[in-house]
Amino acid sequence: MAQKPLTYKQKSGIAFIEQDDPPFIKEMKKKMGYKEPPKLEDKFEDEGPSDFDDAQTELLRMKEEDRPQVVVLDPETDLSREELNKELVHKQKEEDDKKIAEGKIVFKKPVKRHTTEDAKEDVKEKKKKEEVKQPDSRLLSFGDDEEEDE
């Protein structure tokens, strides 16, 4: 007997129902320490209050010249600029480790580093290019040939 094709109404009524894993598979996953991969629904969940409201994380995101000025009145109790930078780096590292542990890894664009040596090399390369360009401008001069014939 040939089956009749489904009508549009019947096709639209079809839905996938995800069932839980059988108990023995759950037990095996638990023993192995298996962690479920993130699902599409997890991406749209509300994460709650943002961590960006913290004053220390705000300091981390500021450029160094925009940060508040550090004044050391008592060297024993006050933080110096170097100590503050070390503390901020330490906090950033802890925050990154925490995000990695939670599985919320954020990739950042690497910061370009320019040194004085690179700048000097760039200047030298530009000078070399300018020197090479000058002789090339005289290659297609037709007026010089006519003057030589006379």
UniProtKB/TrEMBL annotation:
Residues 33-42, 114-136 have a biased composition (Basic and acidic residues). It comes from the Eukaryota. Residues 20-133 form the DUF4604 domain. Residues 33-56, 109-150 are annotated as: Disordered. Pfam families: DUF4604. InterPro entries: DUF4604 (IPR027911), KIAA1143-like (IPR040219). Residues 43-56 have a biased composition (Acidic residues). This is DUF4604 domain-containing protein. It comes from Trichostrongylus colubriformis.
